[in-house]
Amino acid sequence: MEEDEDESEEEEEHFWDDWEGEDEEGEQRDSEFVCLFCESRYSSCGSLFDHCASLHRFDFHAIRTTLSLDFYASFKLINFIRSLVAENRCWSCGLTCQSNRDLQNHLHDLVDFNEIKTLWNDDRYLIPFMEDDSLLYSFGDCDEEGEDEQITPIDEDLIKDLMNIEESIHDDQDVVNKMVVDDDKHEIASVSNDHLNKASSSKELINGKDLCCDKDPEGHLMVNSQNHIAKHIKKINESYFGSYSSFGIHREMLSDKVRMDAYGQAILKNPSLLNSAVVMDVGCGTGILSLFSAKAGASRVIAVEASAKMAAVASQIAKDNGLLLSKSQNGVDGFQKGVIEVVHGMVEEIDKTVEVQPHSVDVLLSEWMGYCLLYESMLGSVLYARDRWLKPGGAILPDTATIFVAGFGKGATSLPFWENVCDFDMSCIGNELVIDAARIPIVDVVDSQDLVTCSAILQSFDLATMKPNEVDFTATATLELKPSYSGTCCWCYGVVLWFDTGFTSRFCQETPAVLSTSPYMPRTHWSQTILTFREPIAMGFGKGNRGKPEAIGTEVYPAAKIDLRVSIVRSTEHRSIDISLEAAGVEPDGQKRSWPAQLFNLQ
């Protein structure tokens, strides 16, 4: 009996040994690394790079070290090599060989490292050349032995970079740019100032193999080949468009008199522009701008709406008002009434559902603006529609947009409220709220009386000519104290941003219009965007402090003006924006004191 049990145990152990062996073989097959220059395969990237160095004159580690290549540049380098080898071209000199064998014989040591570096400094190499290229996700740890997990811990900033390569509906040639994000503060994007000019858009993320993020027990981010990013972007889009399925937001927008007056004037009081025109309304919502266009005499109105519910609502509203396009089946020619055609879908995809000839639209309409003008990132879709369907010389409404900035005083904060609540001092709460406001933008109405500086133009956009990548920008402005504060010292607690959009005489020749969200104008549903300094800056018209720049901006030596450097870019969090704010107090004699940059995320 004991012998039978022993034999059974041996058989069971043998069974599990076989199973584990098969599993290990499967894992080995999955983790094979393909040589960059030939078809040799290796079980580790370290062995592969040793092979490349000895046989193909390509020392990956030496190149990374000499050129100080980060993960991004190394990622591009691998794809660059693979793309050239596929064409039998030498990666270092560019010579095209007749065959791969000839290329193998031709390969030589690299002569000038710095000259070659620029060859793969192209964001198209962020898209893997070879499908399922496991080398791309393992080269950073190729010196480590005994890796059992196929999920590789990598730099956390890189994960945020790769998550920035979002799914778009543009052509495959869309540019992929990087954005580095500080993981320690998820509310903001911690980037250097020159990185703040970069954003991303790409139809494919790593040939459809998207990345998902998780953390190992030690807290390191890990990469896994999943469809997480595409699902994440889709979820955000669904949430974004779904938020517009609520009638509350539409009532708020339709009740916004400044908004409605500007669009109504531009559309209804410029007959030479709209009469018999083909109009496209991007993000039509209830269809109010399309209704205006039909009333103004448009011959065809293509109303595009990504929310399924609102597309149905817009159709019903147009139908109820006798303006929905419908065709009778009776008669040879049929009978057509109404001019509005509601199309459900994102504007980049409407080719699938409606026939619109390229460059056939006379007027492109959209109310695309978000908080701080650029929140929601809808401008890119409008520019796509402009380039795809607007006729040469066609009108885009609005056609200009301008962001303004001004400094605000204590009255625009919550401090006065908390300093006296029923005769009790609760300023500790106000102080804490101000600290939080130095990290997170506040969207609220600012009273013009609480502005302590004159306003300045931060950035202007010409929507008829601007390029899509100009949505992200860095700009400077100087804030000067209002003349009414002459002879006194006041404190500037931060800056407030707002925007104007123009329906200029370029297209609205009879009746130009302006939509302003300024604190000096009637309030709108956009309010203003408030960015609070970590510490207030004293301003006044006093004399210089004679060589003490560290004292500038204090009550003793108030700054005569404040120099700003502001960057606004599309965030790695889809449809959000990141804002970088730098401030420097300037003395009358030109001395400056700069404060550390602050980073905000509006989401």
From TrEMBL:
Primary subcellular site in the record, as a coarse category: cytoplasm
EC nos: 2.1.1.319
Compartment(s) where it occurs, according to its Swiss-Prot or TrEMBL record: Cytoplasm
GO MF entry, a single one: histone methyltransferase activity
Protein arginine N-methyltransferase domain sequence ranges: 399-539
Source species, domain of life: Eukaryota
Domain Methyltransferase residues, every copy: 279-394
Alphabetized UniProt keyword annotations: Cytoplasm, Metal-binding, Methyltransferase, Repeat, S-adenosyl-L-methionine, Transferase
One GO CC annotation: nucleus
Known role: Protein-arginine N-methyltransferase that catalyzes both the monomethylation and asymmetric dimethylation of the guanidino nitrogens of arginine residues in target proteins, and therefore falls into the group of type I methyltransferases.
Name listed for the protein in its UniProt record: Probable protein arginine N-methyltransferase 3
